[in-house]
Structure formats: C-alpha cells, structure tokens
Design a protein that fits this description.
mainly alpha; rod-shaped; 108 residues
C-alpha cells in the first residue's frame, strides 16, 4: 500500500499508466518563466567560467615563464660567482680559468 503523501499519489498515477493532471495556466507560466531565468543564469555562469579558465591559463604561462627566468638568472649568477671567486653562503668557490664551468676535474 502506498503512502497518502503527494509523492505516493504521483507514484499511483505512474503505476496506473495515467498521466498526472495538467497544471493550471498560472503555474505553467510561472514554471516557464523560472525555466527561462535558469537558462539565462546558466549562460552567465558558463561565460564567467570561460573567462576564469582563460585567466587561469594566462597565469600558468606567466608562472612558467617566471620559473624559467629565475632558473636562468640563478645559473648566470652562479657562473659569475664562480668566475670572481666569490663566496657562496660562507664557502669559498674555486675558479679554474681553464674550466668551462663543468664539474669534471682538470684534464690529464
């Protein structure tokens, strides 16, 4: 036996194969108006989502570019410090003027 709630009555309609009763015109108009408003809101949200996606990609490219630039600058700074025999964090770096900057020992 189905409950006497509105949902139970709806299930009884479905089980009997009958369609639910038609809604009054005022309710139909309200649903149509709400549907149009929801479609408009979905379009606004999708547009904002697309704008954020483009912004995110632009920021990711900028971050990647800055990381490459940082790596290049650190490498250049390291080479300059090695050439000048400067200290790095208190340790003296040895500079061999015949070295090409590789970590291998002197040629034999």
């Amino acid at each position: 036996m189905l409950p006497s709630t509105a949902f139970g009555k709806f299930l009884a309609f479905l089980a009997a194969g009958a369609a639910p009763p038609a809604l009054p015109p005022s309710v139909e108009a309200a649903y149509k108006k709400k549907c149009i408003a929801l479609k408009k809101r979905i379009a606004e949200i999708e547009e904002a989502n697309d704008a954020l996606r483009v912004r995110k990609l632009r920021h990711q490219r900028f971050i990647r570019k800055m990381r490459l630039e940082r790596a290049y600058l650190l490498e250049s700074l390291g080479k300059l410090l090695d050439k000048n025999g400067a200290t790095v964090e208190g340790f003296q770096t040895n500079y061999d003027e015949y070295s090409d900057g590789s970590s291998e020992g002197p040629p034999t």
